[in-house]
Amino acid sequence: xxxxxxxxxxxxxxxxxxxxxxxxxxxxxxxxxxxxxxxxxxxxxxxxxxxxxxxxxxxxxxxxxxxxxxxxxxxxxxxxxxxxxxxxxxxxxxxxxxxxxxxxxxxxxxxxxxxxxxxxxxxxxxxxxxxxxxxxxxxxxxxxxxxxxxxxxxxxxxxxxxxxxxxxxxxxxxxxxxxxxxxxxxxxxxxxxxxxxxxxxxxxxxxxxxxxxxxxxxxxxxxxxxxxxxxxxxxxxxxxxxxxxxxxxxxxxxxxxxxxxxxxxxxxxxxxxxxxxxxxxxxxxxxxxxxxxxxxxxxxxxxxxxxxxxxxxxxxxxxxxxxxxxxxxxxxxxxxxxxxxxxxxxxxxxxxxxxxxxxxxxxxxxxxxxxxxxxxxxxxxxxxxxxxxxxxxxxxxxxxxxxxxxxxxxxxxxxxxxxxxxxxxxxxxxxxxxxxxxxxxxxxxxxxxxxxxxxxxxxxxxxxxxxxxxxxxxxxxxxxxxxxxxxxxxxxxxxxxxxxxxxxxxxxxxxxxxxxxxxxxxxxxxxxxxxxx
Amino acid sequence: xxxxxxxxxxxxxxxxxxxxxxxxxxxxxxxxxxxxxxxxxxxxxxxxxxxxxxxxxxxxxxxxxxxxxxxxxxxxxxxxxxxxxxxxxxxxxxxxxxxxxxxxxxxxxxxxxxxxxxxxxxxxxxxxxxxxxxxxxxxxxxxxxxxxxxxx
Lengths: 533, 152
What we know:
Order of helices and strands of chain A: EHEHHEHHHEHEEEEHEEEHHEEEHEEH
Largest interface: A-B, 73 and 53 residues
Number of helices of chain A: 12
Structural class of chain A: alpha/beta
Oligomer: heterodimer
Shape of chain B: elongated
Radius of gyration of chain B: 23 Å
Distance between the termini of chain B: 71 Å
Largest sheet of chain B: none
Largest sheet of chain A: 7 strands, mixed
Number of domains of chain B: 1
CATH architecture of the largest domain in chain A: 3-Layer(bba) Sandwich
Radius of gyration of chain A: 22 Å
Strand content of chain B: under 5%
Distance between the termini of chain A: 33 Å
CATH superfamily of the largest domain in chain A: FAD/NAD(P)-binding domain
Strand content of chain A: 15-25%
Order of helices and strands of chain B: HHHHHHH
Helix content of chain A: 10-25%
Number of domains of chain A: 2
Number of strands of chain B: 0
Structural class of chain B: mainly alpha
Helix content of chain B: 40-55%
Shape of chain A: globular
CATH class of the largest domain in chain A: Alpha Beta
């Protein structure tokens, strides 16, 4: 039997797995990435079909329990007010993300020092700045320089258009004298690295058939594969192998036909997101590691952070963009930094969402009683379609050991591997932040001329950002990985996804996840001779 | 009524008749806007397709509706006057909850409806959409602001 042995095994081909594999490829080490899902054919994306709105909510739902593909694993969300959102396939959740691409701020790495809560990160903004820039070049980021909410940063392409919705709300922000700026977006607004430019399909979160949105299947992976990385799809890892010396030895996985396979490796890198990574570590129990791998601190799975979202929308007399154009438009960080006059610490970002497609507009409106059914239906539907816009507030979630991912004792994926279970409660600080964001959002919509303001908090299916469950730190009793991503307990096991976040900030995490993955890859490359010391 | 549950198909003939009668109540035909109702053949076929995965729940709700109709009017829902049907439907929140999203998605993804509303009547890809660039001078007051971010 041929021995399947590699230098580096990467598990997960999403945002971080793609970045770390690409970066390490220049070492010429033999690198294999195992991905449980498939490549996605862009022609399958909903926006290539007339019934794109219902396909988005079913076959391409970001809820794995609704999508329920063979390549998905179920998640028990019953003990959480917010449900996990993800995608399993080459590109991972970047397939279905909006491409909102903010960076963290310098203050986000010094939460304890500045605000007396949570923990400081063992690295800072300056450490990541070079890797943010490198990642921006690989993903292709559009934006506008000069945002007063950030230190200076490059913009590779012009921003996504302001459009009707952005114009309406920008006027609202200006009336109040509040900050707004065109959103940094992982969307190509002109041709970039073989990708065509955005043509405003408006279905970014259902997958971009145009290929303008930067999902890693079309950004990092083509480069990584050309550089020699082998990517194996439909390979679902059951557990990480432990060698007699306590080091990671590779992985046991199931292939497409369900056959059990073994691959051995000198280095193992986990890139399975903030739920998938603790699930795999907890499923990797052995005599040496009875509580799961890398878990001597007991923190694997703990400190789960999800970013509770508020949503504030209104109806306008003038036309909005509806579903036309990237969902990304403008953001506001007026309430981002801690302000002692508020009843919460830390803050949030407002992200303007242009609007919804006609079917979703009417379905929601009818369900909530704002659009009539029966005799007055057609008139009230016309008053709502392409007349609604608003925003979401993405609230910083602070770490709490009680918020965690465990293994469900009964629920299993199609290969029989125990599924993750969430235990999550929204903190009092975050509840106050959500309330504050709803009130400020309503003020903006009112100033912009909106009527019939609708609010939701939290968005129940909005668990897009999975962070904190194997956090980074210098103290092995208070963290799972060190300051460059290596597990304290196992010196050839690395984690590069959102699990290692110490705090969540109040922005979408993908740009920081990828910058961290590049930084960890760089740290590995610089230490190759002494990597396991 | 027995045929509403336990059918090997998602919806029995009786269930389909009930659903078709409800579809036109929810979204009536409009002469003024020249729009078909929710019971239009193509729209209703799409509706059945969308509702299929939820058929067990829907069939149970239809069974309850029929039972209620017989209790209150001594007749099938299908044979009631439309004002009686509307009155009954108003009291069936569980049924409405499961049917409304499906009828809305079936109706408002039909190219004829979208065209009549002057909306794009083809898939977003490959044609795309036009979104105006907007006036970036709106940013002028924001550009004048001092940095908002903290330096630790």
